């Protein structure tokens, strides 16, 4: 199951890659503009932070299929390493995904709100399907249920696509889609850090250390 960082901040990415088993980084236009730097410079900094072997997901901005394909080709040419083109699951987007698939370029169908949008994107050849869990919850709707339905569609009909769920605001949503069999999640840095935090774990670790040092003073395990 993939663990992906949802940010364009290279400093946050460097720190997380150091500590966590990270598979890649997702970006979108709203995340990119927060860095207040040139688009390609932001992507280059992320690429340096994650190396060439992890996937970097870059979203297109255009509305028409031809323009989406042109943007995608530009990104593929300019950004080294493994790049996946994120394309919104609109009618024009699906047309672009079909074109990218025929060229052998990996895509993520993003901004998915319904299982049937995901079905069409999977059939068009998207490598990843990305339902927006928290944004669906806010409609109101049931984001976790959309992920669950999408997993069923992909698995029952043996599509090659993976469900990489996005837009999380709390770790209960993350737990729910993990248990239900999502193929991956993309999470903001603060949520990734929360995955490991538990006060009882911290208390236990402190008590082990205290017991040891009461008995052996400053000695460590190896000296
Ligand atoms: C990731 O691919 C999406 O762009 C992102 O998770 C959207 O999340 P948000 O709803 O927190 O903006």
UniProtKB/TrEMBL annotation:
Its main location: cytoplasm. GO terms for cellular component: cytoplasm. GO terms for biological process: carbohydrate metabolic process. GO terms for molecular function: aldehyde-lyase activity. Pfam families: TAL_FSA. It comes from the Bacteria. InterPro entries: Aldolase_TIM, TAL/FSA, Transaldolase_AS, TSA/FSA_arc/bac. It is found in: Cytoplasm. Keywords: Cytoplasm, Schiff base. This is Fructose-6-phosphate aldolase. It comes from Siminovitchia acidinfaciens.
């Amino acid at each position: 199951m993939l663990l992906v960082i949802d940010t364009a901040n290279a400093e946050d990415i460097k720190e997380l890659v150091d500590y966590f088993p990270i598979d890649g980084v997702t970006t979108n236009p709203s995340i990119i503009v927060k860095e207040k730097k040139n688009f390609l410079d932001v992507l280059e900094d992320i690429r340096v932070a994650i190396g060439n072997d992890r996937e970097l997901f870059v979203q297109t901005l255009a509305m028409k299929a031809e323009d989406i394909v042109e943007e995608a080709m530009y990104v593929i040419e300019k950004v080294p390493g493994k790049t996946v083109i994120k394309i919104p699951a609109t009618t024009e987007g699906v047309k672009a995904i079909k074109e990218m698939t025929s060229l052998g370029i990996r895509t993520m169908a993003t901004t998915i709100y319904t299982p049937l949008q995901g079905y069409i994107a999977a059939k068009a050849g998207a490598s990843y399907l990305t339902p927006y869990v928290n944004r669906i919850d806010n409609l109101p709707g049931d984001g976790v249920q959309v992920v669950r339905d999408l997993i069923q569609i992909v698995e029952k009909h043996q599509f090659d696509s993976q469900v990489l769920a996005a837009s999380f605001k709390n770790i209960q949503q993350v737990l729910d889609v993990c248990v239900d069999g999502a193929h991956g999640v993309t999470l903001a840095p603060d949520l990734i850090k929360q995955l490991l935090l538990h006060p009882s774990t911290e208390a236990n670790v402190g008590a082990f250390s205290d017991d040891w040092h009461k008995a052996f003073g400053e000695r460590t395990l190896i000296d």
